[in-house]
Amino acid sequence: MRLPTSSAWASVWTGAAVVALSLTACKPLPPSKPSSQWTPQEARGAAVFEAKCARCHYPTTTHSLHGPGLQALTKLKSMPSGAPPTDERLSDRILHGYGMMPSTDLSDQQLQDLLAYLHTL
Ligand code: HEC
Predict the structure, then answer these.
(1) Which CATH number fits domain 35-118: 2.30.33.40, 2.60.40.1180, 2.40.50.100, 2.60.40.420?
(2) What's the CA angle centered on 48, arms 94 and 37, to 5 degrees?
């Protein structure tokens, strides 16, 4: 072959395209803590989520159900609204509702457990 450079460039570009595609295909988010490693509190929080939040939010993706998916919620700089995902802000959203989201009645214990669970997402 007289022009090895052109095929070399072709493989470089193919490699770059594959990398670019895989980056856009699955936006890398920090991994969730596997359920097998949940603390008792996180497991109780998961049950609260199942009972009070799961009908409107997916915990394992960022795709919307009725509200935004909550994967990696507390590991990102901001929530979908742009507000930082602090425990104070989350508690306020949960207890008092926010926009289209209704308020949820929780005991202090349930709220603490739920927050612990949200940190595993
Ligand atoms: C009836 C459906 C519904 C339920 C139940 C519900 N949510 Fe929501 N949630 C929504 C909707 C809709 C939004 C988007 C609100 C908006 O932007 O107007 C939202 C937004 C949020 C947000 C993003 C707030 C922000 O600042 O961007 C968080 C976090 C959240 N919900 C957590 C929860 C948790 C935790 C629970 C369980 C206690 C819960 N939600 C229960 C519908 C629901």
Answers:
(1) 2.60.40.420
(2) 115
Q: Which atom of ligand 1 is nearest to the CA of 104?
A: 38
Residue at token pair 């507390």: 74
Q: What is the pTM of this model?
A: 0.83
Say how many CA atoms lie within 13 Å of 106 toward its Cβ.
Answer: 27
Residue 21 has pLDDT above 60, yes or no: no
Mutate to test the pocket of ligand 1, among 48, 57, 114, 118 (most ligand atoms within 8 A of CB): 57
Q: What tens digit of pLDDT does each residue of 23-46 get?
A: 555 568 999 999 999 999 999 999
* Max CA pair span of the chain: 76
For ligand 1, atom 14, name the residue with the nearest CA. Answer: 67
